[in-house]
Design goal:
This protein has 245 residues and is mostly helical. The protein folds into two domains: 201 residues, no CATH class; 29 residues. Helix content is 47%, strand content 2%. It contains ten helices and two strands. A two-stranded antiparallel sheet has the order 1-2.
């Protein structure tokens, strides 16, 4: 058995993010969010997703997803494609998902839950430990609050730029509290139309990776491996996953 030390801050960040999946979000209830996490795991065993992944184009393969049955079809399609074949998603697919009934805000929150589930599960698989049990679903209603400053772009959906944020919105780009940067780069804008969903993912992500100020500080190495080693690993994973960011 390998003697392994996991940084306390990373273990805590993952545990906190995992528990938050079960809490009511902005557009999905706690129970629905847990169902999204469960469906994310279930997508790995979906024959349709496997066939599409192997095809020259996913459009060449028709059929129905193998689903747990707890979520609408449009949500299942989004979860399964994001989980199984994200490198070939396009705006036309995104628009079809919206037409099928999954609005842009619910899509953004869904993405946050999916990527947190994948990140935690992948990390635990990599270090050879069992996946976490699904979080408990908490009672309560989603807030259903959309920031007034949300506008289209720069990608397929909507975003909340730092300059469009009102005092009623969370300070999603602040450095304190938390490690988020004040720069509203595109990677930060991606989920910003649903600020709580963006912060849910980003708080865990930066703890697992490194905060923005650390990433830009080349005078010091904050992790056990160097900036160059971190970026080499990130670039390789991005290439394997066909990430075009």
């Amino acid at each position: 058995m390998i003697d392994m030390h996991i940084r306390t801050d990373m273990a805590d960040a993952q545990a906190h993010a995992w528990a938050r999946i079960g809490e009511p979000g902005t557009w999905w209830s706690g129970g629905e969010r847990v169902a999204i996490a469960a469906e994310t795991r279930h997508a790995l065993a979906c024959p349709l997703c496997a066939a599409r992944k192997a095809a020259v184009s996913p459009a060449m393969v028709g059929g129905d997803h193998a689903t747990l049955g707890a979520l609408p079809g449009a949500a299942v399609e989004a979860i399964h494609r994001i989980r199984s074949d994200p490198g070939r998603l396009g705006e036309a697919w995104y628009r079809r998902v919206l037409v099928a009934g999954l609005d842009a805000d619910r899509y953004a929150e869904l993405v946050s839950v999916v990527v947190i589930t994948v990140a935690v599960d992948t990390f635990r698989n990599a270090i050879g430990v069992d996946p976490l049990p699904l979080p408990l679903a908490c009672a309560g209603e989603p807030t259903r609050r959309r920031p007034r400053g949300v506008k289209p772009g720069p990608g397929w959906g909507f975003s909340l730029d730092a300059e469009d944020r009102s005092d009623d919105d969370p300070d999603l780009y602040c450095e304190n509290p938390g490690p988020r940067t004040r720069s509203s780069a595109n990677i930060l804008l991606a989920l910003s139309a649903v600020p709580e969903a963006m912060m849910h993912w980003w708080d865990m992500f930066e703890t697992m990776y490194q905060p923005g100020p650390w990433m830009r500080d080349f005078t010091r190495e904050y992790r056990a491996i160097s900036h160059a080693q971190i970026e080499m690993l990130a670039a390789r994973v991005a290439a394997i996953n066909q990430c075009e960011y």
